[in-house]
Specification:
The chain is an all-alpha fold and about 280 residues long. It folds into 3 domains: about 1-145, Ankyrin repeat-containing domain (Serine Threonine Protein Phosphatase 5, Tetratricopeptide repeat), CATH 1.25.40; about 145-240, Serine Threonine Protein Phosphatase 5, Tetratricopeptide repeat (Alpha Horseshoe); about 245-280, Elongin C, Chain C, domain 1, CATH 1.10.750. It is about 45% helix and about 0% strand. Strands 1-2 form a two-stranded antiparallel sheet. Helix 2 packs parallel to helix 4, helix 3 packs parallel to helix 5 and helix 6 runs parallel beside helix 8.
């Protein structure tokens, strides 16, 4: 059973969470989604927080298996929603890794921390890199930092772009992610250009990505795109085309409001059409 940022092949721990020999019947029921068996075991006195040698709990198993009913039953029985394995993996990370939006919501509703501790695997990075859009939306709604920067990985937006996940890219930007923040001096636009992702490039440009930003090699995004690629064509065309006044105004207004106040746009005394324009709707 591997728990890792698979798109970058960066393992957290030795890749094997727990010896199968020390897994309890409660772990088995949770991992297989056998709700009746799980409830029976709990009624017989099994501790909802029983752990393996590597500190894997039944709730970890239920969330990794996308078994929301089992997750609820365990939480009702006192399972710790913020339990961590020896590698720092939480049930929330597992839910995001599996793409289980229902488990993600249940965990957050019952106090799961949307923001990982220092050196812990990050749920929002995992969800962004695997295209788990609904999980990303839930994390943002519950206060996850869309610009959370892990030095060796970068921001969730950078991960979404390098993983070519268009919808997660949109979701993060709508959630207020800084379009310029990537990994070190490499911006999300650099990542999208390298991966020849013209649709992601267009979205980033719409949100104000800087085509003149330079990475550690002093290259602009267009210089990192494959020669004669669609990405190169989109960037060259953008560089040769003046930005519209309406787009400049939108970017300036959003910048003035700042990320913490973007949710107040619907309260502005503006026509609905303008509100939607400012929200990229």
């Amino acid at each position: 059973m591997s728990y890792s940022y698979q798109w970058l092949d960066i393992p957290w721990g030795d890749g094997d969470l727990g010896s199968w020999a020390d897994r309890s019947p409660l772990h088995e029921a949770a991992s297989q989604g056998r709700l009746l068996a799980l409830k029976t075991l709990l009624s017989q006195g099994y501790n909802a927080n029983i752990i393996t040698i590597d500190h894997v709990t039944p709730l970890h198993e239920a969330c990794l298996g996308h078994h929301v009913a089992c997750a609820r039953a365990l939480i009702e029985a006192g399972a710790n929603v913020n339990a961590t394995t020896i590698d720092g993996v939480t049930p929330l990370f597992n839910a995001c890794s599996a793409g289980s939006a229902p488990c993600t919501e249940v965990l957050l509703e019952h106090g799961a921390n949307p923001q990982p501790g220092i050196c812990q695997p990050s749920p929002i990075h995992e969800a962004s890199g695997k295209g788990r859009t609904a999980c990303v939306e839930a994390l943002i709604a519950w206060g996850a930092d869309v610009d959370y920067d892990i030095p060796h990985l970068g921001t969730p937006l950078y991960i979404a772009c390098i993983s070519q996940e268009l919808e997660c890219t949109r979701t993060l930007l709508h959630g207020g992610a800084n379009v310029q923040k990537g990994r070190f001096l490499e911006t999300p636009l650099h990542a999208a250009a390298q991966k020849d992702s013209p649709e992601i490039i267009k979205v980033l440009l719409e949100f104000g990505a800087n085509v003149s930003a330079r990475n550690l090699e002093l290259q602009k995004p267009v210089e990192t795109a494959p020669p004669s690629s669609m990405a190169e064509g989109v960037l060259l065309l953008y560089e040769a085309t003046p930005c519209s006044l309406s787009q400049l105004c939108r970017l300036r207004i959003r910048e003035y409001l700042g990320r913490p106040r973007l949710h107040l746009i619907p309260q502005l005394r503006l026509p609905t059409l303008l509100q939607r324009f400012l929200q990229y709707r």
